[in-house]
Amino acid sequence: MSKISKFFKGGGSSASKGRGGPSPQEALARLRETEEMLSKKQEYLETRIERELAVARQHGTKNKRAALQALKRKKRYEKQLNQIDGTLSTIEFQREALENSHTNTEVLKNMGYAAQAMKKVHENMDLNKIDDLMQDITEQQDVAQEISEAISNRAIFGDEFDEDELMAELEELEQEELNKGMRDVRLPSVPSTSLPSRPGKLLAILLSTRKRAEDEDEMKKLAAWAS
């Protein structure tokens, strides 16, 4: 009996039968074994096809009967090979579907575990207590904010003094400083010689002084030449 017939006639273990059917892991293992068997069958048929082609070429028209028999066998092998290709495609599709189903089952199982864990965590939680707790937290945050604002505001002292009196005192101090500065200023001394009352007379004096300086310079030059 072939492996395929054993597979479809219940070649599973007794443990699988006792559980009412194979597990996904066992089914996937069987499918992979079948794929491996069919792949080996493909290799065998491909080898036989090449061999029959070689026989047909060898006999050719010299031994037409033997060549035709070889080609007929090649056709049968090719037909079997095409059937195996289709079977492999079907098994591959079934294996992928089973793998996806197994994955989805595991995902749903883990999500169920997570839901049970969340339910267990929330068992001891009371929504009313949570609302009260959040309200208390909000109130304490408001209190903390008020305390921070009170601490950060600067303290105000000296409100018992009149601001107008303080301004008057400040102006008085500024005036004293100004008077002190005026006393320290020294004015330039008045020239001892009196200036002429008219501009024309002043110009005449300047010209006379210049003329006298020029004459003295000429006299110095003559004295130097004579000596």
Q: What does the model show?
A:
It is a single chain. The chain has 227 residues and is mainly alpha-helical. The chain has a domain at 23-126: Orthogonal Bundle (Helix Hairpins). Helix content is 80%, strand content 0%. The termini are far apart. One of its GO terms (biological process) is late endosome to vacuole transport via multivesicular body sorting pathway. Keywords: Coiled coil, Cytoplasm, Endosome, Membrane, Protein transport, Transport. This is CHM4C protein.
Give the proportion of residues in helices. over 70%
Which regions are unreliable across 5 or more consecutive residues at pLDDT < 50? 1-5, 7-17
End-to-end C-alpha gap: 163 Å
Strand content: under 5%
- Structural class estimated from helices and strands: mainly alpha
Number of alpha- plus pi-helical segments? 7
Mean pLDDT: 78
CATH class of the domain at 23-126: Mainly Alpha
Fourth-level CATH superfamily of the domain at 23-126:
ESAT-6-like
What is the name of the CATH topology of the domain at 23-126? Helix Hairpins
Query: What is the CATH architecture annotation of the domain at 23-126?
Result: Orthogonal Bundle
Would you count the extended β strands for me? 0
Which value, in Å, is the CA radius of gyration?
A: 62 Å
Q: What is the chain-wise order of helices and strands?
A: HHHHHHH
Largest beta-sheet characterization: none
Instruction: Report the principal-axis shape.
Output: elongated
